[in-house]
Amino acid sequence: IAAAQFAPVSGDIEGNLATITELAVQAVGVDLLVLPELALVGAVDGTNAAAMAEICATVGIDGLRAIANNAGITMVAGLIDRDDDGRLFNAAAVIDGDGVRTIARKAHLGAGDCGWATPGDRPLAWIDLPLGRVGVLLGDDLRYPESARVLAIEGADVLAVPANLAWPPPTGGTPGAENFILPRQQARENKLYLAMANGAGVA
Predict the structure, then answer these.
(1) Residue 175 CA to its chain's centroid (Å)
(2) Helix, strand, coil abundance in the chain, percent, nearest 5
(3) pLDDT tens digit string along 148-190?
């Protein structure tokens, strides 16, 4: 399992796919690669989210599937999902060479999501892979203990968390592992492995 941290460029799906391709090539021997929240599209708002969702559903998914197929891996990648009613969701797709295996929708929206995204309306997502049962949360979802607990009760072995979190702040010193005390604690309390990819430069 690997978590690949990078800074997705807003609106540049082709450029972000190129970065993801490079990261997948580097992930030699990895079965599961976790990418940041909104890895495909970068930061969005109410003016461009719908257009980005359209590209995610076509070029984005096709690109991710091709990358996963060429690398022989499964990826968890942040993107925008749209339902039949046109509602948009901050989401993450679990995708391999055969296509999308499942999609998780972020339930607890952050300040940057509220102008365009709808809170997730599905049960928390998990999927069985050869390495074990993988539960998927997005960013702020991990701040609420019930989310990790529900996935643990569902039998998850691993938490895969695409994120773009700047909170909680570091406990002191240079930003680093200390930023992520809360996510690690959630995993520890629920006896889960944690693979969290935060957007680079966020915290």
Answers:
(1) 21
(2) 30, 25, 45
(3) 999 999 999 999 999 998 766 555 555 555 556 788 888 999 9
